[in-house]
From TrEMBL:
InterPro entries: Alkaline_phosphatase_core_sf (IPR017850), STM4013-like (IPR047838), Sulfatase_N (IPR000917). Keywords: Hydrolase. This is STM4013/SEN3800 family hydrolase. Pfam families: Sulfatase. Residues 100-251 form the Sulfatase N-terminal domain. It comes from Paenibacillus farraposensis. GO terms for molecular function: hydrolase activity. The lineage of its organism: Bacteria, Bacillati, Bacillota, Bacilli, Bacillales. NCBIfam families: fam_STM4013 (NF038075).
Length: 260
């Protein structure tokens, strides 16, 4: 358990959701993902939601994916809102706000969202809800699921913001990576349908692009990073396709936290 009371205020904090990444896919590609897995393996966890909108509301409330076991003592939350009456841990950072984004803003953090999938596009009222948590939010067509270079564009935008950022002000940077979400078949030559193999290829692409972002964050100083999936997706298992459904390939997600 990381003592978040030592992290908040002294570190930049980065949350990266690898949208739709399955746990089994992440494990298969550990050796091919030096940026995401260079300091350790993925942990198997359970997501609080079976699709992006539901899961991210939970994440911003401090309800991150929980360890995929029955040991209650291991289900310790990094962030927890004050005065709920629920049990907390001495290492949990308590915030006096309805969500961790505004809680960190109250501590002087600059909060930035770089969106990816449809719920971050701000194209309608529904798609403005999740970006609305942040002081600054950004989305471009080039960040979306239909662009094969979406992560490159998202990272480049983040790099421009970091280059101009005040080094004395702590940042909370949220990045919703869209490339792993379907359609991802174009990451495999001649493929016409999304599959486990095309998601694996998409993850390798994402890891490659994240390297320059991690380097820039290291140059700013200490950064606490959380990288995890919001949910998985089914590619025909037991007759299921997609997500927003109750199947283990949807509920089991990879999770990592590390210091840059």
């Amino acid at each position: 358990m990381t003592d978040m009371n030592q992290i908040v205020g002294s570190h930049d904090i980065v949350m990266i959701t690898l949208d739709t990444l399955r746990y089994d896919v992440a494990k298969l590609e550990e050796e091919n993902c030096p940026n995401l897995c260079g300091s350790g393996p993925w942990e198997k966890r359970h997501t609080p939601g079976s699709f992006t909108y539901a899961a991210h509301h939970a994440f911003f409330g401090g309800f991150l994916p929980t360890p995929a076991n029955t040991v209650k003592s291991s289900h310790i939350r990094l962030f927890h809102t004050k005065d709920t009456g629920l049990r907390t841990h001495p290492d949990t950072w308590l915030f006096d706000a309805p969500d961790i984004v505004s809680g960190l803003a109250n501590e002087g953090y600059r909060t930035i969202c770089i969106g990816g999938v449809i719920f971050f596009t701000k194209k309608n009222k529904l798609a403005k809800v999740l970006p609305g948590y942040f002081q600054e939010s950004y989305w471009r067509m080039t960040f979306g699921v239909t662009n094969p270079r979406s992560t490159e564009h998202q990272v480049n935008h983040a790099l421009k913001l970091l280059e101009k950022a005040d080094p004395a002000q702590r940042l909370f940077l949220f990045l919703n990576v869209s490339a792993i979400h379907g359609p991802n078949h174009y990451f495999v030559k001649d493929a016409v349908k999304d599959s486990v193999e095309s998601q694996r290829a998409a993850l390798r692409y994402v890891d490659q692009e994240l390297g320059s972002l991690f380097d820039a964050l290291r140059n700013r100083g200490n950064t606490f990073c959380m990288a995890f999936s919001d949910h998985g997706t089914a590619y025909g298992e037991d007759g299921y396709e997609g997500h927003r459904l109750a199947h283990e390939v949807v509920w089991n997600v990879p999770y990592r936290e590390f210091i840059l």
